[in-house]
Specification:
By secondary structure, the chain is an alpha+beta fold. Helices cover 25% and strands 26% of the residues. It has helices at residues 101-105, 134-150, 167-170, 177-185, 216-233, 268-284, 327-349, 351-360, 371-380, 394-402, 443-449, 527-536, and strands at 3-5, 14-18, 36-37, 42-49, 64-68, 71-73, 75-82, 121-127, 156-162, 243-248, 286-291, 364-365, 384-390, 407-414, 420-423, 426-428, 457-466, 473-481, 489-490, 496-507, 513-525, 538-546, 553-555. The chain starts with a strand and ends with a strand. Mean pLDDT is 76; it is low at 1-31, 101-110, 205-214, 256-266, 309-319 and 433-440.
């Protein structure tokens, strides 16, 4: 059990998140719901551009054709959505000034709290450290930092997340660039990456089969990336409008059959996981953009490769020469085999990176040597889009009512020639529930389990290990709540008090909860206590059991 201790130690540290308003709504209005499926309407968002990639804004409902399973549908709802113009021009956006001794000693300014109608863009930058090489991890990190410096606008909410190394420690939607810089600085190369230290392993006097299927460990890490993307998507649905998830990766090998996304051959587990990602993307009203930081890929021999005419272990043995060919011909043959193997490996690494944007209406950006420009292009995409809706047919309605989900293809076309339209490629006929699914009366569960939650009650949290003579593993969490955000109540006897319900948990690097407990606190306050709490806030601590030694994140 968690044990309440009063009084406790004043502290300052990392932001946790909680919620304090029962009136908060989690269901977007019809105007902001970019993807919606129920018995009344199927609504989808679509981006239309000309040959130069510029958005087209003068189309009407008559200019569109929408097909479900190849059958044309009658458009009943139609609107053009424009994001609010930036408050300042992009050229005037400046990064925060460098911290000086004077500013470091000053108390930090409180973060700006945006209301839902003040949010301009919601962007999550997901760095797949399970699928990036060392050099491309560095390039991705610097591109994100430059985007925050020069492109992030007032009214934007952003978050930086990694797929493998401490995802829970980086998650937070914010408009505060200092918080984002802190998250960016913590992005590091992951030794568990599916790629390794370089995009292609170097060759040392032997030709290896670079096109063989990935081993089981690589498949497991692939599933880790997809599950991390799902984890992020499950926290994005609370925000209005169209949300963008930018995935930086150079390896998302899926193995499709000719039948397409529904006929993958790798394994049922991977197929199911990918289907879940697509469903979560639609449910959250999000769009996935994938960015391959490799740019134009060189698959030929490089200076890192050592290819000679002899075997290193036995210099007297030549490398399997072909009959009737000289040494030069054999080396050229081996160089060709290596290049072809790398090309095959490169193409397979792009499978998932290309399919996720295609089915969700985003963009796959590769062959771009300037990663920061690729991110800039993706972030600006979708600032103008169309919402198109139609009444589902009787068969689809029956599927929803009977709870038998079925996948339906979806296609949006534009009659005007020379234009390109991007939209979601399909949906499952399942009636949507308010998002997130937890009941409105259980706000603490929503705050605890939904990642990237934008906090309404500021919680300052610090934690550390606690010595226990009994030999048990314990964590102590010190908590501070701003007093002016709390409401003082009065009971039947005229006594003043503050009522709190806390939900504390420890999670691992995978974001999964290890230990948790909920407690209710009724804290009596006299007149002097009320004044003190108003000025200094409320301070207390909880003791958290940890069943096993190791590193944990503490959430409260």
């Amino acid at each position: 059990m968690f044990r309440q201790l009063f009084p406790a130690v004043l502290m300052f540290s990392t932001l946790a998140w909680a919620q304090d308003q029962e009136s908060r709504t989690t269901q977007d209005s019809a105007e902001n719901k970019v993807f919606r499926v129920d018995v009344n309407i199927v609504q989808v968002d679509a981006v239309v551009t000309d040959k130069e990639g510029r958005p087209v804004t003068d189309l009407t409902a008559e200019d569109f054709i929408i097909l479900q399973d190849g059958k044309r549908q009658e458009i009943t709802n139609f609107s053009l959505v424009r994001l609010k113009d930036p408050i300042v021009p992009r050229s005037a956006v400046q990064k925060p000034p460098s911290e000086t001794l004077e500013t470091s000693l000053s108390p930090p300014l409180p973060p700006i709290r945006l209301k839902k109608n003040e949010i301009r863009r919601v962007i999550v930058l997901v760095v797949d450290d399970l699928g990036l090489s060392f050099s491309n991890m560095v390039r991705s990190r610097e591109a994100i930092r430059k985007w925050v410096d020069e492109e992030m606008q007032p009214g934007d909410l952003a978050a930086v997340v990694t797929t493998g190394s401490g995802m829970g420690g980086l998650q937070q939607f914010t408009g505060d660039k200092k918080i984002l810089y802190n998250a960016i600085d913590r992005i590091r190369f992951n030794v568990l990456s599916r790629v390794g230290s370089s995009s292609f392993r170097s060759v040392s006097d032997e030709t290896k089969d670079l096109a063989t299927p990935p081993p089981q460990e690589i498949i497991r890490r692939l599933l880790g990336t997809l599950e991390a993307v799902r984890y992020v998507l499950n926290g994005m649905g609370i925000f209005p409008g169209r949300k963008s998830l930018m995935l930086f990766s150079e390896h998302l090998r899926i193995h499709f059959d000719d039948g397409g996304i529904m006929d993958m051959s790798l394994s049922d587990l991977v197929k199911d996981k990918l289907d879940q990602v697509i469903q979560d993307t639609n449910r959250a009203g999000a769009v996935i953009y994938t960015i391959d930081p490799r740019g134009a890929v060189w698959t030929e021999i490089t200076v890192e490769d050592t290819l000679s005419l002899v075997n290193d272990s036995d210099p007297t043995v030549r490398m399997d020469p072909l009959p009737d060919q000289d040494d030069t011909s054999n080396v050229l043959r081996k160089m060709k085999e290596i290049s072809e193997g790398r090309q095959a490996e490169w193409l397979k690494s792009l499978e998932g990176l290309s399919i996720l944007p295609k089915v969700t209406g985003g963009l796959f950006i590769n062959y771009h040597n300037w990663v920061e420009v690729a991110l800039q292009e993706a972030a600006r995409d979708g600032e103008i889009y169309y919402l198109i809706g139609y009444q589902p047919d009787a068969e689809t309605i029956t599927e929803m009512q009977e709870g038998k989900p079925k996948h339906h293809s979806l296609e949006v076309r534009v009659k005007r020639p020379g234009l390109e339209v991007r939209s979601r490629s399909g949906f499952f006929s399942t009636t949507e529930t308010p998002y997130p699914p937890a009941p409105s009366g259980d706000m603490l569960t929503q705050a605890m389990l939904s990642p990237l939650q934008y906090d309404e009650l500021t919680v300052h949290l610090a934690s550390g290990y606690l010595y226990d003579p009994a030999g048990q593993y314990l964590l102590r969490a010190w908590v501070h709540l701003p007093g002016r955000q709390l409401t003082v109540l009065r009971d039947q006897n005229g006594e003043n008090y503050v009522s709190l319900e806390t939900y504390a948990a420890t999670t691992g690097f995978d974001g999964l909860i290890r230990d948790s407990d909920r407690m209710e606190h009724k804290i009596p306050l006299n007149t002097q206590d009320i004044l003190s709490v108003r000025e200094q806030g409320l301070r207390f601590s909880v003791t958290i059991p940890a069943k096993d030694p190791g590193a944990y994140f503490v959430r409260l």
